[in-house]
């Protein structure tokens, strides 16, 4: 397990992410075997905390409360690959607290890894959507 940091970024449409240093995603994308054709995701490197249009906080008065906060998170450096995505599994108790403060469950199908197998967050580093 390794540790890194990112910055909380709130959007008016109720999208909340942890912005990740681009170099981190680039590094792990370079670890994907060359035999696996991938491309960068459409969005800059991030961890989704609240996914706009898919879930809406029920306690709105806390929206934006921690904008710009530096978030420390742990991650598994083993790149996960399925039919469509490549990602890193991420764990962060602080993100669970923020979701609960917003009236959301600790995890959702939008924050879990694409495989849905782990009860953690994730950082998508590449996709196969050509």
Q: What is the succession of H and E elements?
A: EEHEEEEHE
Question: How many strands in all?
Answer: 7
**Strand percentage:** 25-35%
Profile the largest sheet.
Answer: 7 strands, antiparallel
Unreliably modeled segments? none
Distance between the termini: 31 Å
Bulk shape: globular
**What is the averaged pLDDT score?**
93
* Helix content percent band: 10-25%
Radius of gyration: 14 Å
> How many separate structural domains?
1
SSE class: alpha+beta
Number of helices: 2
Write the layout of secondary structure elements.
Elements: E1 2-11, E2 15-19, H1 22-30, E3 46-50, E4 70-75, E5 80-81, E6 85-91, H2 93-101, E7 121-127
Antiparallel strand pairs: 1-2, 1-4, 2-3, 4-6, 5-6, 6-7
Can you characterise this structure?
- The protein has 130 residues and is an alpha+beta fold.
- It has helices spanning 22-30, 93-101; strands at residues 2-11, 15-19, 46-50, 70-75, 80-81, 85-91, 121-127.
- The protein has one domain (2-127).
- The chain starts with a strand and ends with a strand.
- The model has no long low-confidence stretch (mean pLDDT 93).
